[in-house]
């Protein structure tokens, strides 16, 4: 049976009626509304048998199965100390990981920073439906389809690299929504990178829970004994360079601290043999080889990383990332304290 989210009101009723129930409105502890996309539960084998069987782990919270999850339709805008998901707003940026997470959880019970399990579920839905959204990946327009534009917050024309090329959330065409309809999740690709919870690396080692246990403290995340290695170590000169490619491995043999490594997600090598590797593939951190070849062989997005110290996960890309952006774009270059004008976040909710 459907869960009761809140007492029906005119706004919620109008949003649900217009979207056929694909969108809803959920209120936080301060009474502010957020428009959310409803993502129904599905099984891994329904996407591809190579991923395993049973419900996708995004729909398991500490082992308890959930019939649906609610993802912010729009990148978050902070108002009165809490993150909101509302259209035609300027996304909040220049915010570090801890603050973004607090602005999400301060909304009340069930609210949280969108996490790697949820990104995986959304991405699998898109790929199963043979659709990868575009977005603001070239200063207010799509680099793939330059006629697709959003409304820039600085009112400058699309494609102009000066000014502030972020677009108002949800102001792009349907192809910028995850299901190619106005009732999908907007701006997953481009506009601003999104801090993503329940996943980090420590000196290259992957740490994450086993399912969407979004209240689990970080100190209780499991160290997976699976690492991001690099095909080359840091260069010894003083210039930051792209020195190699990330590899999902059993250990780190090449440490990268100041330089970077990057590769298209679909081309990333996997040499790890740990038993937790299947979870890492389910999270779409590592690509999967199947009996018929590469799963999601047309995946768009680049993986960039440094494997020294603690690094938090960013996903999706920004207005300046062009072909590097995409549903599969993962950045593990930065710490939880880093702040950039190209980085924001999104909220989710589970009852």
**What structural category characterises the helix and strand content?**
alpha+beta
- What percent strand? 25-35%
Poorly predicted parts: 1-6
Radius of gyration, in angstroms, nearest whole number: 19 Å
The SSE string, one letter per element, is: HEEHEEEEEHEHEEEEEEEHEEEEEEE
Describe the global form. globular
Mean pLDDT: 95
Question: How many runs of DSSP E, i.e. beta strands?
Answer: 22
Number of helices: 5
**Helical amount:** 10-25%
Descriptive notes:
The protein is an alpha+beta fold and 351 residues long. The chain has a domain at 202-318 and 329-334. It is 12% helix and 26% strand. Strands 9, 10, 11, 12, 13, 14, 15, 18, 19, 20 and 21 form an eleven-stranded mixed β-sheet that branches. Strand 9 (193-202) and strand 10 form a beta hairpin. Mean pLDDT is 95; it is low at 1-6.
Task: Give the topology, please.
Blueprint: H1 10-19, E1 23-27, E2 33-40, H2 44-47, E3 60-61, E4 64-65, E5 68-72, E6 77-79, E7 82-84, H3 97-105, E8 111-113, H4 116-128, E9 193-202, E10 205-208, E11 222-230, E12 242-244, E13 246-249, E14 260-264, E15 269-270, H5 277-282, E16 289-290, E17 293-294, E18 302-305, E19 310-315, E20 330-334, E21 343-344, E22 347-349
């Amino acid at each position: 049976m459907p869960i009761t989210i809140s007492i029906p009101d005119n706004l919620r009723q109008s949003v649900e009626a217009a979207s056929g129930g694909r969108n809803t409105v959920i209120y936080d502890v301060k009474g502010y509304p957020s428009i959310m996309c409803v993502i129904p539960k599905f099984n891994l084998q329904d996407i591809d048998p190579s991923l395993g069987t049973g419900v996708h782990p995004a729909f398991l919270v500490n082992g308890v199965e959930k019939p649906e999850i609610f993802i912010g339709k729009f990148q978050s805008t902070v108002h009165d100390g809490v993150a909101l998901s509302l259209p035609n707003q300027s996304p909040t940026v220049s915010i570090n990981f801890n603050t973004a997470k607090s602005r999400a959880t301060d909304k009340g019970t069930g609210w949280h920073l969108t996490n790697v399990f949820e990104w995986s579920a959304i991405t699998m839905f898109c790929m199963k439906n043979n659709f990868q959204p575009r977005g603001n990946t070239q200063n207010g327009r799509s680099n793939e389809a330059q006629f697709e534009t959003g409304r820039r917050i600085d009112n400058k024309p699309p494609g102009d690299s000066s000014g502030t090329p972020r677009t108002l959330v949800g102001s792009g065409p349907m192809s910028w929504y995850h299901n190619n309809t106005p009732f999908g999740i907007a701006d997953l690709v481009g506009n601003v990178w999104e801090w993503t919870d329940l996943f980090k690396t420590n000196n290259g080692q992957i740490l994450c829970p086993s399912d969407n246990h979004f209240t689990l403290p970080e100190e209780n995340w499991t160290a997976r004994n699976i690492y991001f290695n690099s095909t080359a170590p840091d260069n010894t000169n003083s210039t930051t360079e792209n020195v190699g490619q990330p590899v999902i491995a059993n250990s780190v043999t090449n440490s990268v601290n100041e330089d970077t490594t990057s590769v298209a997600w679909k081309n990333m090598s996997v040499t790890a043999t740990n038993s937790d590797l299947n979870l890492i593939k389910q999270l779409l951190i590592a690509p999967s080889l199947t009996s018929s070849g590469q799963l999601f062989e047309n995946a768009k997005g680049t993986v960039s990383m440094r494997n020294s110290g603690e690094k938090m996960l960013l996903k999706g890309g920004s207005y300046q990332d062009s072909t590097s952006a995409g549903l599969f774009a993962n950045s593990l270059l930065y710490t939880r304290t880093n702040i950039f004008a190209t980085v924001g976040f999104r909220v989710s909710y589970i009852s």
